[in-house]
Specification:
Elements: H1 3-22, H2 28-38, H3 41-65, H4 74-89, H5 98-110, H6 112-144, H7 149-175, H8 178-185, H9 192-201, H10 203-219, H11 221-249, H12 255-270, H13 281-292, H14 297-321, H15 326-336
Helix pairs in contact: 1-14, 3-4, 3-6, 3-11, 3-14, 4-5, 4-14, 5-6, 6-7, 6-10, 6-11, 6-12, 7-10, 8-9, 11-12, 11-14, 12-13, 13-14
């Protein structure tokens, strides 16, 4: 990627961090008191994401390689994974900063078509594993808790939604999603003109990308299921964050309950995907989730606060990594050309 484009992403990330700090809805002395209360658990919570991002990077690396050799190293992919998620977390509606950044950084190594298809495939896998995680949580809840009428209705609604989403994604994996997505955008206001021109001018490239997407599921099933297993595992490992935080407040919490809290809170917060860092939505979702499991709602608010600070730290780290190691990338680009 040219330095001027990388700098645009970097400046955007810095601006988002400044905006988040200015809109943080808590007195900083109170924030420090809460972090002090967390004690040794807080470094463990921040460090846990080294493992989570490692699993995410392995999942994406499986897709990039797809049984072939490629010039980019795993640790470069790890770096791009952290920076890409940092941009996504800081972007309203998500998936609007990290994905273009990853495509542009990956292109010198594998070419534009393969870079685009691998990033689209990983974004699909990331969302697909999330949906399967929600679906799994339904059966976990049924195994652990009694179900009243209201909860039965809610679980049924979640189950139907998950099944429809899984069906949609499996169709996308079978036939590709690039052309389908552009076709949908041609019917939306504001972007339909651009989408129509892009679809007409880049049809050959889009068809090639769709062919690569379909190939992963149809011909490289081992790669597909390995990538999915790593992403799903990252969801389970991520529940340790809830477990660590709640152990600051109480000893009466189980890891399965933390899986349910994570599942229901993430489902709620994703309904408000248009908010940067899902401000307010995550805290509300966590409060509702812990309340539904007979845990005090204040615990959910505290969990949301610690999670927010951890996320901000990783956004700063991810944006900072965008300025590290780019000389090597430039040399590789020259060799590739």
């Amino acid at each position: 990627m040219k330095d001027k484009y990388r700098n645009i992403f970097w400046i955007f990330g810095i601006a988002a961090i400044v905006l988040m700090l200015c809109t943080f809805d808590m007195d900083y002395s109170e924030l420090w008191d809460n972090l002090y209360r967390a004690g040794r658990w807080f470094p463990a919570i921040v460090g846990l994401w080294l493992l989570i991002y490692l699993l995410n990077a392995l999942s994406w690396y499986c897709i990039i390689r797809n049984g072939k050799e490629c010039q980019i190293s795993f640790w470069r992919v790890y770096k791009l994974t952290i920076s890409g998620f940092a941009l996504n977390y800081a972007t309203p509606m998500g998936l609007m900063g990290g994905e273009p950044y990853r495509i542009m950084e990956l292109t010198p190594y594998v070419g534009a078509s393969r870079a685009t298809s691998s990033v689209i495939l990983y974004a699909m896998m990331h969302i697909f594993s999330h949906i399967n995680f929600w679906f799994f949580s339904i059966f976990l809840y049924l195994a652990l808790y009694s179900v009243n009428v209201e909860m039965a209705v809610l679980l049924t609604f979640i189950g139907v939604f998950c099944l429809l989403a899984i069906y949609f994604f499996m169709k996308g994996y079978k036939n590709g999603m690039a052309l389908r997505t552009l076709s949908l955008l041609t019917h939306l206001p504001f972007v339909k003109g651009w989408a129509t021109r892009f679809k007409e001018n880049k049809r050959d490239v889009l068809e090639q990308i769709d062919a690569q997407i379909a190939q992963l599921h149809q011909q490289r099933k081992a790669t597909f299921y390995t990538s999915f297993a790593l992403e799903f595992l990252s969801r389970i490992v991520g529940c340790l964050e809830i477990y660590f935080i709640l152990n600051i407040l109480t000893d009466d919490v189980s890891f399965p309950a933390c899986i349910l809290i994570m599942a229901f809170s993430s489902l709620f917060s994703n309904l408000f995907f248009f908010s940067p860092m899902q401000l307010g939505a995550r805290e509300g979702g966590l409060a509702l989730a812990v309340g539904g499991l007979a845990i005090p709602g204040a615990f959910g608010v505290y969990t949301g606060l610690i999670t927010r600070v951890r996320e901000l730290i990783w956004i700063v780290l991810g944006v900072s990594l965008m300025k590290v190691g780019n000389e090597v990338i430039k040399e590789n680009k020259e060799n590739h050309e």
